[in-house]
Amino acid sequence: MKDIILIGAFHEMVELCEDSGLRIAGIIDNECTGAFYGYPILGTDADAARIHLKYPECHAVLTPDPPGTRRKLEGIYRSAGFSFINVIHPGATVSRYARIGEGTIIQNGVNVSANCTIGSFCKLNTRCNVMHDNVIGDYTTVAPNAVLLGYVSVGSMSYIGANSTVLPHCNIGNDVMIGAGAVVTKDVVDTLVMAGVPARIIVKQD
Protein backbone atom coordinates (compact mmCIF):
# COMPACT_ATOMS: atom_id res chain seq x y z
CA MET A 1 0.00 0.00 0.00
CA LYS A 2 1.44 3.37 -1.02
CA ASP A 3 1.29 6.46 1.18
CA ILE A 4 0.01 9.66 -0.38
CA ILE A 5 -0.77 13.26 0.45
CA LEU A 6 -3.76 14.82 -1.27
CA ILE A 7 -3.20 18.32 -2.63
CA GLY A 8 -6.62 19.86 -2.15
CA ALA A 9 -9.43 18.83 0.21
CA PHE A 10 -11.95 17.20 -2.13
CA HIS A 11 -14.21 14.42 -0.84
CA GLU A 12 -14.50 12.74 -4.25
CA MET A 13 -10.72 12.34 -4.39
CA VAL A 14 -10.60 11.06 -0.81
CA GLU A 15 -13.00 8.30 -1.76
CA LEU A 16 -11.15 7.56 -5.01
CA CYS A 17 -7.86 7.08 -3.16
CA GLU A 18 -9.48 4.92 -0.48
CA ASP A 19 -11.12 2.74 -3.13
CA SER A 20 -7.79 2.48 -4.97
CA GLY A 21 -6.01 1.04 -1.95
CA LEU A 22 -3.89 4.09 -1.18
CA ARG A 23 -3.12 5.20 2.37
CA ILE A 24 -3.78 8.92 2.90
CA ALA A 25 -1.27 10.44 5.33
CA GLY A 26 -2.94 13.82 5.19
CA ILE A 27 -4.19 16.67 3.03
CA ILE A 28 -2.72 20.03 2.06
CA ASP A 29 -5.28 22.77 1.50
CA ASN A 30 -5.15 26.57 1.50
CA GLU A 31 -8.56 27.05 3.11
CA CYS A 32 -9.49 23.94 5.10
CA THR A 33 -8.06 23.47 8.62
CA GLY A 34 -8.16 20.77 11.27
CA ALA A 35 -9.31 17.60 9.53
CA PHE A 36 -11.24 16.61 6.43
CA TYR A 37 -13.14 13.32 6.25
CA GLY A 38 -11.02 12.10 9.14
CA TYR A 39 -7.65 13.02 7.59
CA PRO A 40 -5.42 15.74 9.07
CA ILE A 41 -4.86 19.01 7.24
CA LEU A 42 -1.07 19.27 7.17
CA GLY A 43 -0.75 22.86 5.99
CA THR A 44 -0.98 25.00 2.86
CA ASP A 45 0.90 25.16 -0.43
CA ALA A 46 3.42 27.46 1.27
CA ASP A 47 4.32 24.58 3.61
CA ALA A 48 5.03 22.08 0.83
CA ALA A 49 8.79 21.79 1.39
CA ARG A 50 8.42 21.44 5.16
CA ILE A 51 5.72 18.79 4.76
CA HIS A 52 7.85 16.82 2.29
CA LEU A 53 10.69 16.74 4.81
CA LYS A 54 8.30 15.28 7.39
CA TYR A 55 6.73 12.79 4.94
CA PRO A 56 9.55 11.99 2.48
CA GLU A 57 8.03 8.67 1.36
CA CYS A 58 4.62 10.12 0.49
CA HIS A 59 3.62 10.77 -3.09
CA ALA A 60 1.49 13.79 -3.99
CA VAL A 61 -1.90 13.50 -5.70
CA LEU A 62 -3.25 16.68 -7.31
CA THR A 63 -7.03 16.83 -6.88
CA PRO A 64 -8.22 20.07 -8.61
CA ASP A 65 -10.30 19.84 -11.78
CA PRO A 66 -9.03 22.89 -13.74
CA PRO A 67 -6.00 22.02 -15.93
CA GLY A 68 -4.21 25.28 -15.17
CA THR A 69 -4.44 24.72 -11.44
CA ARG A 70 -2.93 21.24 -11.74
CA ARG A 71 -0.05 22.57 -13.85
CA LYS A 72 0.71 25.29 -11.29
CA LEU A 73 0.57 22.85 -8.37
CA GLU A 74 2.75 20.31 -10.17
CA GLY A 75 5.49 22.93 -10.35
CA ILE A 76 5.16 23.88 -6.68
CA TYR A 77 5.19 20.33 -5.36
CA ARG A 78 7.89 19.02 -7.67
CA SER A 79 10.13 21.89 -6.56
CA ALA A 80 9.37 20.92 -2.95
CA GLY A 81 10.67 17.40 -3.65
CA PHE A 82 7.44 15.46 -4.04
CA SER A 83 6.98 12.65 -6.54
CA PHE A 84 3.63 11.80 -8.11
CA ILE A 85 1.71 8.60 -8.80
CA ASN A 86 -1.27 7.65 -10.93
CA VAL A 87 -4.56 6.96 -9.21
CA ILE A 88 -6.72 4.51 -11.17
CA HIS A 89 -10.01 3.35 -9.69
CA PRO A 90 -10.43 -0.44 -9.70
CA GLY A 91 -13.76 0.08 -11.47
CA ALA A 92 -12.06 1.72 -14.47
CA THR A 93 -11.18 -0.26 -17.59
CA VAL A 94 -7.74 0.63 -18.95
CA SER A 95 -6.40 -1.34 -21.90
CA ARG A 96 -3.09 -3.09 -21.33
CA TYR A 97 -2.08 -1.51 -24.64
CA ALA A 98 -2.70 2.05 -23.37
CA ARG A 99 0.10 4.31 -22.13
CA ILE A 100 -0.54 6.52 -19.11
CA GLY A 101 1.70 9.41 -18.06
CA GLU A 102 2.75 10.49 -14.57
CA GLY A 103 0.30 11.80 -11.99
CA THR A 104 -2.86 11.04 -13.96
CA ILE A 105 -6.21 10.38 -12.26
CA ILE A 106 -8.69 7.88 -13.75
CA GLN A 107 -11.99 7.66 -11.92
CA ASN A 108 -14.67 4.99 -11.55
CA GLY A 109 -16.31 3.69 -14.72
CA VAL A 110 -13.81 5.26 -17.12
CA ASN A 111 -12.90 3.32 -20.26
CA VAL A 112 -9.50 3.82 -21.91
CA SER A 113 -9.28 1.66 -25.01
CA ALA A 114 -6.36 0.11 -26.89
CA ASN A 115 -3.43 2.12 -28.23
CA CYS A 116 -4.36 5.31 -26.35
CA THR A 117 -1.72 7.66 -25.00
CA ILE A 118 -2.80 9.65 -21.95
CA GLY A 119 -0.41 12.39 -20.88
CA SER A 120 0.82 13.39 -17.44
CA PHE A 121 -1.42 15.01 -14.84
CA CYS A 122 -4.58 14.36 -16.84
CA LYS A 123 -7.92 13.82 -15.13
CA LEU A 124 -10.40 11.37 -16.64
CA ASN A 125 -13.63 11.82 -14.77
CA THR A 126 -16.38 9.33 -13.99
CA ARG A 127 -17.62 7.20 -16.91
CA CYS A 128 -15.88 9.11 -19.66
CA ASN A 129 -15.07 6.93 -22.66
CA VAL A 130 -11.72 7.31 -24.43
CA MET A 131 -11.82 5.05 -27.47
CA HIS A 132 -8.99 3.47 -29.42
CA ASP A 133 -5.95 5.35 -30.75
CA ASN A 134 -6.66 8.57 -28.84
CA VAL A 135 -3.87 10.92 -27.74
CA ILE A 136 -4.59 13.23 -24.80
CA GLY A 137 -2.06 15.89 -23.82
CA ASP A 138 -0.72 16.78 -20.40
CA TYR A 139 -3.02 18.38 -17.78
CA THR A 140 -6.17 17.89 -19.86
CA THR A 141 -9.46 17.09 -18.11
CA VAL A 142 -12.15 14.88 -19.63
CA ALA A 143 -15.40 15.44 -17.71
CA PRO A 144 -18.04 12.83 -16.75
CA ASN A 145 -19.67 10.84 -19.57
CA ALA A 146 -17.72 12.58 -22.33
CA VAL A 147 -17.00 10.33 -25.33
CA LEU A 148 -13.89 10.62 -27.48
CA LEU A 149 -14.27 8.31 -30.46
CA GLY A 150 -11.40 6.69 -32.38
CA TYR A 151 -8.24 8.51 -33.50
CA VAL A 152 -9.02 11.73 -31.58
CA SER A 153 -6.14 13.97 -30.55
CA VAL A 154 -6.47 16.50 -27.71
CA GLY A 155 -3.69 18.93 -26.83
CA SER A 156 -2.48 19.95 -23.40
CA MET A 157 -4.41 22.05 -20.88
CA SER A 158 -7.78 21.43 -22.54
CA TYR A 159 -11.15 20.67 -20.94
CA ILE A 160 -13.65 18.31 -22.56
CA GLY A 161 -17.05 19.01 -21.01
CA ALA A 162 -19.52 16.57 -19.50
CA ASN A 163 -21.64 14.52 -21.92
CA SER A 164 -19.82 15.94 -24.95
CA THR A 165 -18.85 13.82 -27.94
CA VAL A 166 -15.80 14.19 -30.16
CA LEU A 167 -16.17 12.43 -33.50
CA PRO A 168 -13.43 10.23 -34.99
CA HIS A 169 -10.22 11.78 -36.37
CA CYS A 170 -10.90 15.22 -34.85
CA ASN A 171 -7.87 17.14 -33.57
CA ILE A 172 -8.42 19.48 -30.63
CA GLY A 173 -5.68 21.98 -29.79
CA ASN A 174 -4.14 23.25 -26.58
CA ASP A 175 -6.08 25.21 -23.95
CA VAL A 176 -9.43 24.46 -25.59
CA MET A 177 -12.72 24.24 -23.71
CA ILE A 178 -15.49 22.04 -25.10
CA GLY A 179 -18.84 22.83 -23.50
CA ALA A 180 -21.09 20.29 -21.83
CA GLY A 181 -23.17 18.30 -24.31
CA ALA A 182 -21.31 19.63 -27.36
CA VAL A 183 -20.66 17.48 -30.43
CA VAL A 184 -17.30 18.20 -32.04
CA THR A 185 -17.39 17.34 -35.75
CA LYS A 186 -14.20 19.00 -37.01
CA ASP A 187 -10.74 20.10 -35.87
CA VAL A 188 -10.47 22.80 -33.19
CA VAL A 189 -7.45 25.11 -33.02
CA ASP A 190 -5.81 26.36 -29.80
CA THR A 191 -7.50 28.53 -27.15
CA LEU A 192 -11.09 28.29 -28.37
CA VAL A 193 -14.28 27.76 -26.38
CA MET A 194 -16.69 25.56 -28.33
CA ALA A 195 -20.31 24.68 -27.56
CA GLY A 196 -23.45 23.38 -29.25
CA VAL A 197 -24.50 20.65 -31.66
CA PRO A 198 -22.53 20.72 -33.83
CA ALA A 199 -19.92 22.60 -31.76
CA ARG A 200 -19.28 26.19 -32.81
CA ILE A 201 -16.86 28.85 -31.60
CA ILE A 202 -18.18 30.80 -28.62
CA VAL A 203 -15.07 32.81 -27.74
CA LYS A 204 -11.30 32.81 -28.17
CA GLN A 205 -9.58 32.59 -24.77
CA ASP A 206 -6.75 34.95 -23.80
Keywords, please?
single chain; 206 residues; alpha/beta; 8-stranded mixed sheet; 6-stranded parallel sheet; 3 helices; 14% helix
Distance between the termini: 43 Å
Largest sheet: 8 strands, mixed
Strand order in the largest sheet = 6-9-12-15-18-21-23-24
Radius of gyration in whole Å, from Cα? 17 Å
Oligomer state of the chains in this structure? single chain
State which percent range the strand residues make up.
25-35%
- How much helical structure, as a percent, in the residues? 10-25%
Average the pLDDT over all residues and give the rounded result: 96
Order of helices and strands: EHEEEHEHEEEEEEEEEEEEEEEEEEE
What is the count of β-strands? 24
Count of alpha and pi helical runs: 3
Instruction: Please state the overall shape, judged from the principal axes of the Cα atoms.
Output: globular
How would you describe this structure to a colleague?
This protein is α/β, with parallel strands linked by helices. The protein has 3 helices and 24 strands. The protein is globular. The chain starts with a strand and ends with a strand. The mean pLDDT is 96.
